[in-house]
Amino acid sequence: MTSQPAPKYDRDQWRACGQVRPRAATSWTGFLTTEVARWAFALPFAVFGLFHFTNASTMVGAVPVAGGIFWVYFTGAALIAASIGILTRKLGSWAAFGLAALLLTFILFVHVPELGNPKTQQMAVRGLLKDLALIGGALAWAGLLKVNCCATESQGKPQVTVDDDSGT
């Protein structure tokens, strides 16, 4: 069986479907911006998820809806699932979208109601802005982890070609 060389990266084809050219993970900058960045983003969510299980009784007071302990455990499981999905890249795009949706619920149901209370307003603004920034990161990872819609088919499998030049 002979192997065929991968087709050259086609910049216009990638841009046509809204994709960003993947960077080669062979250089140290490629490694930093792919592997290290993915772990640095996703791992803290797993830790926060574990905290929901180990400190559930202290977190119950922050739940603004009925069924407090259930929602603490549910949120912990969702954070761990999102982290695992992003780290393993198994359904990573869906995991990142789910994480963004979860963070949006934090904004709507935790931070926004606290904006009306002068005692909690400053912390609510901090939490809102932090979660908004994390939503941006989650949505960015959702796009980066998405299967490329413009990848060429090679024996029934998507094939993504990467070149290591620094041009755009």
Helix-strand makeup class: mainly alpha
Question: What is the H/E string?
Answer: HHHHHHEE
Shape: globular
Average pLDDT reading: 78
- Assembly classification: single chain
Overview of the structural elements:
By secondary structure, the protein is mainly alpha-helical. The protein is 63% helix and 4% strand. The protein has helices at 11-16, 28-54, 56-59, 68-88, 92-114, 121-145; strands at 152-154, 157-159. Strands 1-2 form a two-stranded antiparallel sheet. A hairpin with a 2-residue loop joins strand 1 and strand 2 (157-159). Helix 5 packs antiparallel against helix 6 (121-145). The longest helix has 27 residues, at 28-54. The chain is globular. The model is unreliable at 14-19 and 148-168 (pLDDT under 50).
Helices, strands, pairings?
Elements: H1 11-16, H2 28-54, H3 56-59, H4 68-88, H5 92-114, H6 121-145, E1 152-154, E2 157-159
Helix pairs in contact: 2-4, 4-5, 5-6
Quick recap of the structure?
It is built from 6 helices and 2 strands, in the order ααααααββ.
Distinctive features:
single chain; 168 residues; mainly alpha
